[in-house]
Amino acid sequence: MQITVDLDLCESHGSCVFAAPGIFSFDDDDYLLYEPAPDDGLRGAAEKAAASCPVRAITVAAAP
Amino acid sequence: MSAAGHPREVVIVGASLAGLRAAATLRAEGFGGHLTLVGAEQYTPYDRPPLSKKFLTAADPAETRLPVPDDLRARWLLGRAAVRLDPYSRIVTLADGTRLPYDGLLIATGAAARSGAVPGEPGPGQGVFTLRDRDDAVALRAALAAGRRLLVVGAGFLGGEIAAAGRALGLDVTLVEAGAVPLERAVGAEAGAFVGMLHREAGIDLRTGTTVTAFRTGPDGALTGARLADGRTVAADVAVLALGAVPATGWLAGSGIEATGGVPCDNRLRALFPDGTAVPGVVAAGDAARVPQPLAGGDAPPPGHWSGAVEQGTAAARTLLLGEAAPVFEEVPSFWSDFHGVRLRSVGLPGLADTVKVHECDRDARRLEVSYHLGGRLVGALTIGRTSRLAAYRRVLAEPTP
Ligand SMILES: Cc1cc2nc3c(=O)[nH]c(=O)nc-3n(C[C@H](O)[C@H](O)[C@H](O)COP(=O)(O)OP(=O)(O)OC[C@H]3O[C@@H](n4cnc5c(N)ncnc54)[C@H](O)[C@@H]3O)c2cc1C
Ligand code: SF4
């Protein structure tokens, strides 16, 4: 699975960190960090994160 | 709903965030029947949070339309308000007389701005606005562009954002708040004082502990200012009443559902009659729904947050499809507000707290971390410039309540 986040859109809402802590986290300055190629087992959490992002910055796709 | 729990004819009243999420969930999870979305506004669903932020300040504001899935296969009845619900014959009636039978109904009519708090209140034509929908935002944007002095009544989140937008546009801004600090009931005195400090640093004239008792208009009827309860006057050519929102449930009068404070729901979002029995085939979601809040020990007014509308819309759709087999709805409320270039984020229900703990309060760096407790138990947290700290609180709040 492949995750992309449009960091120009991201407003550090943190919904993705709540929904999928195994993929998304913040550094100490509230910049979003994420695992771009997480395990397929996290697909449900990743989709929940994408759906909960208020600015629709997250795209979830199958691994290339 | 049929015995198997599969509705054939679903009507969603309120074509906005919660309604659209529910519609998308119904289709994504296999609903093959007819789907009708009814909306009082003429617009397809759009996002409201930008309307008090970027939409007011950007030179060329982007559309805030919400994406509608291609495969929604819905009938849209827009610009048409529902005026009546008969839960026994299962019919929704629209203002133009159209009757819509349903076997599954979602109530997602949101909330409306509270107004009428000041006697003889002038309207938008005279320069006094409220802000809830796109038309309000377009009108306010134009008034701010032409205005010089803005008066915002109510220093809650919405009022604070509008005041900040006014400053960003270069207007003189007065912000009037009845409480001792902004947001005291919502987030406590400590965080409220911090927000008040940010407003004053931005050059807003924040007047706390007072209210507007009368507006003043000139010979042409246009706003010139207001009189405050403390006897002082404020000059203004634009005013916004930001006094909170009330559930838009007036159309349910006569249905047997007592919905003045939001449609009462059970923990699968099924609408309830006053005797506690479920209204057959009817669910509610979003700002119109009074959803049980375990953190509050059960009943609490709708907090009115974006994420609640999203999660409840999804959950209500599952209840329509699965009935009793649908998962119980459990949500940790979360909320954000952006103003003066800072990001305020909260989780849980800070307003419940009897004890507030300040973990970080750095005025220069504009950072704040506060947690909220009731009877020794965590009920919420709030940060400014420290979103990274919230996830840990969220995890604790998501643990089942004892
Ligand atoms: C200006 C503004 C800024 C906000 N900022 C934030 C923020 O920063 N963070 C945050 O968490 N939340 C914010 N919110 C709150 C958030 O937008 C709401 O929680 C969310 O919109 C609720 O969605 P909803 O679908 O329940 O209701 P709404 O979005 O209110 O939609 C209800 C829809 O139902 C329609 N309707 C009403 N009555 C009828 C009827 N009788 N028949 C047919 N249709 C009807 C209405 O026209 C409306 O389109 C903000 C809200 C506003 C207004
Ligand atoms: S939910 Fe969206 S806006 Fe929020 S941190 Fe994640 S990507 Fe950024």
Automatic annotation (TrEMBL), chain A:
PANTHER family in the record: FERREDOXIN (PTHR36923:SF3)
Keyword Coiled coil carried by entry: no
Protein's UniProt name: Ferredoxin
UniProt function note: Ferredoxins are iron-sulfur proteins that transfer electrons in a wide variety of metabolic reactions.
Organism ancestry: Bacteria, Bacillati, Actinomycetota, Actinomycetes, Kitasatosporales
Claim: Iron is one of the keywords in the record: yes
Organism in which the protein naturally occurs: Streptomyces microflavus (Streptomyces lipmanii)
InterPro entries recorded: 3Fe4S_ferredoxin (IPR001080), Fe-S_cluster_ET (IPR051269)
Gene3D superfamilies documented for this protein: 3.30.70.20
Keywords: 3Fe-4S, Electron transport, Iron, Iron-sulfur, Metal-binding, Transport
Cofactor: [3Fe-4S] cluster
Origin superkingdom: Bacteria
TrEMBL record, chain B:
Domain of life: Bacteria
Keywords, alphabetical: FAD, Flavoprotein, Oxidoreductase
GO molecular function: oxidoreductase activity, acting on NAD(P)H
Pfam families linked: Pyr_redox_2, Reductase_C
Listed cofactors: FAD
Keyword check for NADP: no
Domain Reductase C-terminal: 335-399
Residue ranges annotated for the FAD/NAD(P)-binding domain, each copy included: 9-313
GO cellular component, one term: cytoplasm
The protein's name: Ferredoxin reductase
Organism: Streptomyces microflavus (Streptomyces lipmanii)
